[in-house]
Amino acid sequence: MNTVRELESNTEPSTIFDLREVCKEYQMGEVVVPALRGATLTIRRGELLVILGPSGSGKSTLLNIIGGLDAPTRGEVLFRGDDLAKYNESQRTQYRRKHIGFVFQFYNLMPNLTAEENVELATEISVDPMKPSEALEMVQLGPRRTHFPSQLSGGEQQRVAIARAVAKRPEILLCDEPTGALDISTGQVVLEALAEINRRVQTTVILITHNAAIAGLADRVITMRDGHVHEITENPRRKSVDELVW
Amino acid sequence: MYQSWPQSLGVVAVVMCGIAAYICVYSAYLNLSLTRDTYYAQNRFADFEIMVERAPETAVFKLENLPGIRQVRKRIVEDVNVDIDGVDEPRIGRLISMPSIKTPVINDVVMLQGRYFEPGEQRVVILSEHFARANDLDIGERFQISVDNKKYSLKVIGVGASPEFVYMIPNVQALVPSPERFGILWVPEEFAETALDLKSACNNIVGLVDDPDELDAILDEADKLLDPYGVFAKTKRENQLSNRFISDEIKGLGVSAKIIPTLFLGIAALILLILLNRMVRTERTQIGLMKAFGYSDWAVGFHYIEYGLILAVIGCLGGFALGQWMAGGMIKIYVQFYQFPILESRVYFDVLTRSMGITLVFATLGALTAAIQAARIQPAESMRAEAPSRVARIWLEYLPFLWRRLSFTWKMILRNISRNRFRSAVNCFGVAISLSLLLMGFFMSDSIEFGMDFQFQEVQREDVKVSFQKEQGRDVLYEAMRFPHVRRAEGLLEYPFEVRSGWRKKDIVVIGIEKDAELQRVMDFDHKVFSMGDSGIILAQSLAEDLAVGPGDTITLEPLMGRIDRVYEVPVRAVAQQFVGTAAYMDQGALSRLLEEPYAITSALLRLESGSRDEFNKTLKNIGGVAAVSFNTDAYQSMQDTMGASMNITNTILLAFAGVIAFSIIYNVTAVSLSERQRELASLRVLGLSIPEVGRIMYIENLLMGGLGVLLGLPMGIGICALLVEAYSNDMFRLPFHIARQTYVTSILLTMSFVFLANLAARRKIRHLDLVEVLKERE
Fold first, then answer.
1. pLDDT band at B192 (very low <50, low <70, confident <90, very high)
2. What b/e readout covers B450-479, taking b as 16+ CB neighbours within 10 angstroms?
3. Are B606 and B479 in contact (CB under 8 A)?
4. Smallest CA–CA separation between A40 and chain B, in Å?
5. Which of A141, B427, B602, B606 has a CA-to-CA distance to B443 between 20 and 30 Å?
């Protein structure tokens, strides 16, 4: 089922994503609303990338396109040299299943399933998953694995969502405002978990936020404005979560 | 409102069906009862009728002077053979004498065409409308009748109708009118007196009383007075054949008018309840916002009630239009059955007000819980996610051995079902209601078909029944066997009795059957044929219930016909399965010994060679002393034609409604549960489950709930059918409690295909689920 071909010659070995002139337009009734107007960007394997930008700058759209939830109107989205823009719905589903982990602002856990069962959801459909308990240990929720979402705090629920996303051993973890619904200290725990995963398992993490303080965590920071990549900054040194100033 | 339009449409459709059925049935009820009451009053329909052997005029005068009796009329009534040129088939006419000058009398004739008698006219006749039309007898034409072996030629001078024969059947056994074979011949009194040799005498008295509640006592007095003249039968208005049939029909309509709207609108309320509760849940945040802006709890709650009321009013108005249209069709069916000179479908605005009232009550009930919930929402709380319902492990999880073997999909499904019990229960219950509605729809036809088959194939198995004017010796059977084409002949001895058990009493016909009768059989509840034994009497089910007796009890029999003035005690041997009439059965020998008339029979049942009917008719035409000839196939046919046809229309409508409602319910519960779970489904899709994989979880869950619903719906439906049997059964009919295997199969298949259809719609929704939108919304 794997349609992804091996690296092509025109991409650097460490590049996992190569986005070229990606455009996305939404048809809203009779009006065409552009969300991306030719975003170009490469993403390196194993990096922690923070995408900053105000609402409407196109950062979520970009993330959804990278995550195979949405297809671009124009442009190329090369994942290890293979163009996602040409995938159909079921290829995108397979792609998400194999390579992508998602974390949303709202945790989207199944209310009827325990923490462990929620993680199981992901491991059941993967080829070489972690054990659900192992994934929960990673986010320090081992002891709470039999709890239902309603019995967990917001931060804990988000960590279950992260455990669920990483349990598949995805190549890329996409996080859309993962701390947006959380208070500072809980948010820190969640960010810590994401940074830890990036360090330990070498998962590429892309995190979008409008909170500039989080940018310190990243290897690189991309600022989006009006559907373009406005600026790319490389952090000489990644800060730890404790060092971030809110 | 826009988003949930299919569900809203479902509510409107169910309300519409309910109200349409209500309007249709209730208008028919009003139309029929109003018409009946005015018709009876205008034409002085008798309060009682007494049949005697021969009563002189003086006795009738004495009768009129009895306290409580307002007025009486002596009549001559006799069933005669009618011989129309070119028709070999036997026709029976009921000869009824009328005064030779038109005066307002009891059981008057309404002239529809032609004229009334003129003084001195003798051999003229006024025919009942349907009989004249069915036999092409126009005014001025002639036909012959035979009375006491003498033939008379009568000239048709008019066509009429009478409150006495709105439902035109010769006896209970006939069940449905057969307008060409039986009709009324109103003739001048003088002619009847001569022809039947009843000069200044009569054999039938009809009368009016001051107070119908006193009727029993008055009839007892009348009985004493007329005893010397041989009283055969006393009939109160409520038991008068035609009136009984109409009144039972009207009563049945009244029952339906209560059951149908309650059932349908109850279901509409249920759908509304599910729909609105879900709306409140999804609109929590908006509700909170509105309240934060300063809307009162009441205003917010009322919004949902309003929503329910709007749907209800739309459904109600649609239902009124549809129902009025159907009522017109219903009247057309009734006009075939009942000979009312005027019967039309009117628009009853109070019925509209009433149905509007009922609908609004049901809609409010359905919307109430949602409104209360909406009113209770606290603005601050609404901004937080709603606390998920309490969840527990399912029992299977305590059996790790089994649980581990389940596939992931099944684990998901079982957890979903068991941890969201309310939703599961609603799904399951929706299917159960749908199935029981369909079962109920099919049951009515099953029941009637079964009853007819039972009657004509198991009980009444002769080809032709020849009834004699007077009792005959059994030797007529040997004569009958000498007729060409007769293959078997059996005798019947039918004799009217008053049966009593304690204070309960009833006038019935006891039928004496030959020991090894094959042409008329009596069967028990397992459909085993009773062999007639020497002792005891077998009662039809409804008779046994009326008298409150069972096997082993003793009842008393008092002959209603003349000469014998004795009372017999007879043990009840058994109770028989019977759907038509209230007869009792005895061994023929035993009955004739009881009556001290050995070997007497009153009719002959014959089996003919096939295709020999015409020849048989021709031979029979030359034989005297025959009161009636009825062919089983004719009876079966007219039953099929009239009852079958009209029943088919009503059943088809009922079934169509049941189908609409069943589908609405199933579609609604599926759609509601789908939109409740959008987020879950989207999460699964994002995790990488394909559309078919996500779909499978939904479908299997729905099918499982559907299956459970079917299991629950079967006993529910059977229960409803049993209630219908009770609601619609009366003295003359019982609906057989019979559900054909085919009905189970069809109902279950239909229900499950509705589940499939609803799943298809759900599939479309899953396919078009906007993952990004759904997941970005807050919980």
1. very high
2. bbbebbbeebbbbbbbbbbbebbebebbee
3. no
4. 22
5. B427
B162 in helix, strand or coil? Answer: coil
Q: What are phi and psi of B431, to 5 degrees?
A: -65, -40
Q: What's at B776, amino acid-wise?
A: K
CA distance B400 to chain A (A): 15
* Closest Cβ–Cβ partner in A98, A104, A110 for B775: A104
How big is chain B by its Cα radius of gyration, in Å?
33
Backbone angles phi, psi at B507, to 5 degrees: -90, 125
The conformation of residue B409, written as its DSSP 8-state character, comes to: H
Around B651, how many Cα atoms within 13 Å sit in the side-chain half-sphere? Answer: 18
Sign of CA dihedral B324, B329, B335, B341: positive
Closest CA to B257 of B26, B419, B565: B26
Distance of CA B54 to the CA centre of its chain: 39
CB A164 within 8 A of CB A122: yes
Contact B167, B242 (CB under 8 A): yes
This prediction's pTM: 0.75
Q: What is the ipTM of this complex?
A: 0.86
**Binary contact (B776, A64; C-beta < 8 A):** no
Both structure tokens of B242: 């035609």
3-state SS class at B20? helix
Residue B769: its chain A contacts at CB < 8 A?
A: none
Judge contact between A139 and A153, C-beta under 8 A. no
List the one residue out of A22, A168, A195, A70 whose CA is nearest residue B776. A70
Token pair of B428, please? 């399951």
Tens of pLDDT, residues B681-740 = 888 888 888 888 888 888 888 888 889 999 999 999 999 889 888 877 777 778 888 898
Q: What ranges make up the beta strands (E) of B200-345?
A: 201-209, 231-236
- Among B316, B577, B256, smallest CA distance to B440 is for B256
Taking CB atoms and an 8 Å cutoff, what residues of chain A touch B389?
Answer: 111
Judge whether B552 and B571 are in contact, CB under 8 Å: yes
The answer to whether the CB of A165 falls within 8 A of the CB of B688 is: no
What's the maximum distance between 2 C-alpha atoms anywhere in chain A?
53
Q: Which of B684, B686, B691 sits opposite A69 (nearest CB)?
A: B686
Q: Give A105's contacts in chain B (Cβ within 8 Å).
A: 776
C-alpha neighbours within 13 Å on the C-beta side of residue B778? 12
Tens-place pLDDT, residues B360-385: 888 888 888 888 888 887 776 665 55
Looking at this protein, which amino acid is placed at residue B577? Q
**For residue B148, what are the CA distances in angstroms to B30, B125, B555, B623?**
45, 18, 37, 11
The count of CB pairs under 8 A between chains A and B is: 80
Spell out a b/e string for B276-300, using b for 16 or more CB atoms within 10 Å of the CB, else e.
Answer: bbbbbbbbbbebbebbeeebebeeb
The 10s digit of each residue's pLDDT in B490-529 is 999 988 888 999 888 888 889 999 888 889 999 988 888 8
The most distant pair of C-alpha atoms in chain B lies apart, rounded to whole Å, by 102
Altogether, the residues listed in chain B come to a count of 779
CB B764 within 8 A of CB B698: no
Per-residue model confidence as pLDDT tens digits over B249-296: 888 888 888 877 777 778 778 777 877 877 777 777 778 888 888 888
Tell me which DSSP letter residue B339 carries.
-
Q: Distance of CA B261 to CAs A73, B16, B255, B317, B556, Å?
A: 55, 10, 11, 15, 45
Is the CB of residue B248 less than 8 Å from the CB of residue B732? yes
List, for residues B6-49, the tens digit of each pLDDT value. 778 878 888 888 888 888 888 888 888 888 998 999 999 999 99
CA distances in angstroms from B405 to B134, B397, B703, listed in the order given: 75, 11, 21
Q: Of B588, B474, B576, B472, which is closest to residue B523 (Cα–Cα)?
A: B576
Given a contact cutoff of 8 angstroms between Cβ atoms, the answer to whether A237 and A218 are in contact is no
